[in-house]
Amino acid sequence: MTSGAADLVVRAGAIHTLMPGQPAQRALAVRGDRIVAVAAAPNGLDELIGAGTEVIDRPAAAALPAFDDTHTHLIIAGNSAHDVPVHLARDIPELLGMIRERAGRTPPGEWIRTTANWQEINLPERRFPTAAELDTATVDHPVYLMRGGHNVVVNHRALELAGLTADTPDPAGGHLGRDADGLTGLLQDNAIPLVARLLPAATPEQRIDGLRAATADYAAKGIGLVRDAMVPIEDLDILHRALQQGALGVRVRAMASALGLSAADSVDALLDRLEQWRYLPGPWLSVWGVKFGLDGGIEAGATRDPYACDHSFFGYLTWKPDELTEAMDRVLRRGWRIGTHAYGDRAVETLLDIYAELRQRHPALPAGALVMEHGGLTDAALRERAVRLDIPVTIQQPLLHDVARIEDTYWGPERVSSLFPARQWIDAGALVTGGSDYPVGSYGAMRSVWGMVTRQTVTGVRGLEHAITVLEAIALHTTNSVALLGESELRGALTPGRLADLTLWDVDPTTASPGELADLQPVCTIIGGRIVHGTHICIVHGAHI
Predict the structure, then answer these.
(1) pLDDT tens digits for 246-299?
(2) Class of domain 205-485
(3) What is the CATH number of domain 8-66+496-542?
(4) Which residue, 42, 56, 61, is CA-closest to 511?
């Protein structure tokens, strides 16, 4: 600890440093963006309080490191800040009414976009709306109705602008919905870019404002860092501008998106454009690596056994394995890390084959260079192989919570209950981290912890044998996460020298009942010594004592 007054002193009932063997502390001091001291007594750091020191004094509160969401989609959250909030709709007529209302105040010809964090199966109709139904909301505007990251529904005006007809073949790794009348407007996976390429770009000011709102909401839910798993290369500039304007309320680790690519040669152009972003100053924003997708999502994850709803369907792979191996080899040769979406067990098996080949080609790869995103459906053999290959996995319990009903339709209840087996991953010795997969799942620090502890979903408790403890779930978002990111010396624990990223809770999450965790929100979130959420709630005051 260097001499001089602290900028901020926090007194609390329990400051959980997450350092092994260290009991809860009662005081913490910050200078600049770093923790400079902790103390076991609430007044143990009063000698660091000067005339300009701000003090947070909440004797009943508990402090934890700020949480990481290691697989989420901040860009989508920011882009959706100004979109039609269809996630609030209770049925398809209400959803259509929201679009109709927006059309009524939007100039004809302009695109209408919606939020994506909703599930059709949780509506009473339990289906997507169709292009024809979207036409009843407006025929004067192309409509782009998002649902998660793998599904979009558009109206006939959008299909017409994209030149899509009943004769248009499905693209490799994608699907166009069809019925007896032609295209239904549903686009899945690699079919989405056929229309998405036509969407007009928002102004930089609109994008930055959306990121400001989205990161403020992440912070309000206890998240201090997001690993965005699908950042288009051109959006790195927007993230950088947002950082320069002070609009990022949380730290960002960007994964440059290779989604939509299906040939090794196409990756070279992405890597060329990525080079300028290799070195970003400071710990607020950096590029983690490159994101690939190997299979579809809920409706098209590649499985060994047939789908429950169609015994002739096994999902699909979005890359030819040999081609993906060559593409990833080029990424590794450029010195970038790789995270790959693999949801079904056939995709997981294929990915491990690819990663094993890459490890043979690159025997000196650093830890965490190859990561499995989701690893949703795995058996013991797949988990053990991933551990032998030293492959970390990111799991997203909120995703399972929100989509269990629709997954039952596609995969059947038994397979759905076995998704994201956190207990078994941990027991196998894997480095496993937690995330949300927003907009498919709902982000939030304790929302994720609650789900991992209870295995609760919209259809009830599923796969309770996969549940873990509160402390284990917290570790997945803190100490495990920073290990995955290679930032263990920088963040993830509340000790001198590390960044002052912490959350304050009026109910101690480590001793709370499972029922208290579900909707528990922090009263204060501090990132880099700066209060980004809860300034007034935390009763921050100058040190005139």
Answers:
(1) 999 999 999 999 998 889 999 999 999 999 999 998 899 999 999 999 998 888
(2) alpha beta
(3) 2.30.40.10
(4) 61
